[in-house]
Amino acid sequence: MAQVDPLRLYVYVPQVYAHQIKIGDAVTVALAERAGEQYRGTVARTARAIDSATRTMQVEIRVPNPSNALITGSYVQVTLPINADAQSLVVPTNVLLFRPDGTRVALVDGGGKVHLTTVKLGTDFGTSVEVLSGLNAGDRIILNPADSSPTVTW
Class of the 7-79 domain? Predict the structure, then answer.
């Protein structure tokens, strides 16, 4: 037997955002197969500890589910009230070059010359990644740069 109203959801919040999660915070829950529908819930409790293997904190969310619209075991997308770092940039992963001396991005300077710059990465979002340092908002980056030589000769 399972209790489905309220439905309890468990999500794992990356360490960098864990300190922003508070009990009672409002969250939004959505199912991919029900585009446009959203369900409101609240943070019921947190583990208040970071898992050393995943560097995440488990958070329990309770969502009212009187019509049983949400099914136990479903995959959902949860929007949490966290503030992303306004100083960081998000770029597509196909701009990254992984080198022995660190992760690099190919930039085009004001004179039209290409050079590599070292970047420090933050959260990986799958098809995009947060860049914590090494890039500025106005930089021109190259998509799918060639990785054929240790130095750029374009």
Answer: mainly beta
Residue with tokens 């300190």: 19
pTM over 0.85: no
Q: 26-60, pLDDT tens digit by residue?
A: 999 998 888 888 999 999 999 999 999 998 999 99
Residue ranges matching CATH 2.40.30.170 in the chain? 7-79
Q: Where in the chain is the domain with CATH 2.40.420.20?
A: 89-141
- Please tell me the CATH code under which domain 89-141 is placed: 2.40.420.20
**Cα–Cα dist 8/60, whole Å:** 7
Instruction: Give yes or no for a cis peptide into 145 (omega within 30° of 0).
Output: no
Cα 110 from Cα 106, distance rounded (Å): 13
- Per the CB < 8 A criterion, the answer to whether 43 and 61 are in contact is yes
